[in-house]
Each structure stands twice: as C-alpha cells, then as structure tokens.
Design goal:
With about 190 residues, the protein is mostly beta strands. Helix content is about 10%, strand content about 40%. The protein is built from 3 helices and 15 strands. The longest helix has 9 residues.
Length: about 190
C-alpha cells in the first residue's frame, strides 16, 4: 500500500519524492515522520519500568471539516466517512507530543467521563485557562518495536488546546498503567 508523507504546509510527498495531489485521501495512507510509532519507558512506583508503544491518530494534526470555514480546503482527509482537513497549528504543536508523552508521570492525567480515554496535560503551562492536552486510550498489548519490549499500547486519539481543569477524575499515571496491565477499567466518580 503506498504511503504519502505530509509536509509542514499540508502538502503530500510520494515515496519517490514527487508531489502527490489528491482531492480526498484516507488518513491511514498519510505518514507523519515526527509521529511515527515508538516505545516510551515509564517508571512505576516499585522501580519497575513499563514499556508502552505509542501510536498517533490523525486527529493530532487535523481537524473536523466545516464546509463554511474550509470552502477552499485543497484536500479532504477521510477518517472513515468523516472528512477532516489539515490544521497547521495542530501539526506544529504535535511535534512536542513524543517528548511530552515520554514524560507522562510528570504531567496531570485524568480519566475522562467518556469512559474510554485519558487526558494528559502539563499543569505548569496553562495559558488563559487552556493547556495543550493529549487524549489517549491505554490497552494491554505485548510485543517489541525497534527492539524495545512493550506491555501496553497507547493510542493517542487527539491533541489540542483544551480548557483546564477539564471534566474528569484525576488519576496517577501509575494507577492508569496498572489498571490497563490488569485489563481493568477505572471507575469514574
């Protein structure tokens, strides 16, 4: 299956280096080099270190399509049947995601009321009530990526500036990781 690399301006480049132009493309055909899957190592309270494979979904760098706002959008990025468009601000901000998530234990983490994911943000960089926030799921998955073992997979569903504090239940990274390792869900209060 051919893949296309997205550039900082939203254009696509084919594997041979040529420009690729589409009116519509499936988000799974787009490669974002700085968001390639990788493994983070998270220290746990009892001196264990847990490997977590991190996978980034396209919502980290694109946004919902609005036919009024995006009337001149050069390309629709399809997430199933939902059209989305490249967002240069989200794309540029997503460059910090790998380092941000690698430092998971040092950020605020909360279980969202949607009962399906977590939110994480840096509480020291809240500006005007907003903080760059990543939303992710955490599930058990054992394997190796680039020679590094992992016990969990983190699917980063989206990342953007969100109001903080957000609705949700604060949780420690260690508790979230431990629950995922045991295949349990945290209870939302």
């Amino acid at each position: 299956m051919p893949r296309f690399t997205i550039n900082a301006n939203g254009s696509l480049t084919a594997d041979d280096g040529s420009a690729a132009v589409f009116k519509q493309i499936d988000h799974q055909l787009i490669h974002v080099p700085h968001l390639a899957p990788h493994v983070i190592l998270v220290p746990m309270p009892r001196d264990d270190v847990i490997g977590i494979k991190v996978i980034y979904l396209s919502h980290c760098w694109n946004e919902s399509y609005d036919p009024v706002r995006h009337v001149d959008a050069p390309m629709l990025i399809m997430d199933g049947i939902r059209p989305r468009v490249f967002n240069i601000v989200r794309f540029e901000e997503s460059r910090v995601l790998p380092a941000f998530l690698a430092d998971l234990s040092n950020h605020r983490l909360y279980w969202t009321p949607a009962d399906r994911n977590f939110g994480v943000y840096n509480a020291t960089t809240i500006i005007d009530g907003l903080a760059y926030t990543a939303f992710f799921t955490l599930k058990k998955e054992r394997g190796k990526l680039s020679g590094i073992r992992h016990s969990l997979v983190m699917r980063v569903e989206s990342a953007y500036h969100a109001p903080q504090p957000s609705v949700g239940q604060r949780v420690k990274a260690g508790a979230a990781i431990d629950a995922a390792l045991k295949g349990k869900k945290l209870k939302f209060r």
